[in-house]
């Protein structure tokens, strides 16, 4: 194993609540009420696809032109950016700082495969941007998770084969993307049906020793 590719939301930090707040207010402004249960569906899903799901849920799929939908997505993003402006390294999920250090110490490469167009600025605010050898630009992808494109692109950008990488995700769509790319998958709190190669309950359980052992056992 030569590299670990990380998802962002739910693996490095938990921005799901900020996304939820911003989507909830946006949805309410057009008469749609969403709750936490519905919000689970939006994890790992791109901004425009999230909006489509909300409009469909509220029965308003045909009520907005493309330009209006882009404005709604932008309105959500403006509120989201205000909410994430105050993120600090304290919001790194448990064990992530030491896990990244272990990977660096052992000379492994580190990549980011997040659907978020705000990924780079969040890494900066968490003070971990310097650890990343590559970041996939989600704006350049033709398909979002669960399509394998994002994780396959991360391996390509690192000049590695998928079989030389591991990927870590907290969403079912994300595990499907990793598995489809032919990368060793690690699920953080995902249901067994997602078929991750190794499951942990929380990020605090991530250590290089354990990851290596599971990676080698699969070969
Ligand atoms: C994250 C979140 C999603 C969000 C997406 C796009 O995915 O889980 O809820 O819709 O990014 O974010 P943005 O609107 O900032 O571009 P991931 O892949 O990091 O879990
Ligand atoms: Mg995620």
Automatic annotation (TrEMBL):
The keyword Cell membrane does not apply. The active site is at residues 7, 9. Its EC number is 5.4.2.6. The keyword Aminoacyl-tRNA synthetase does not apply. It catalyses: beta-D-glucose 1-phosphate = beta-D-glucose 6-phosphate. It is an enzyme of class 5 (isomerase). GO terms for molecular function: beta-phosphoglucomutase activity; magnesium ion binding; sugar-phosphatase activity. InterPro entries: B-phosphoglucomutase_hydrolase, Beta-PGM, HAD-like_sf, HAD-like_SPP, HAD-SF_hydro_IA, HAD_sf, PGP-like_dom2. This is Beta-phosphoglucomutase. The lineage of its organism: Bacteria, Bacillati, Bacillota, Bacilli, Bacillales.
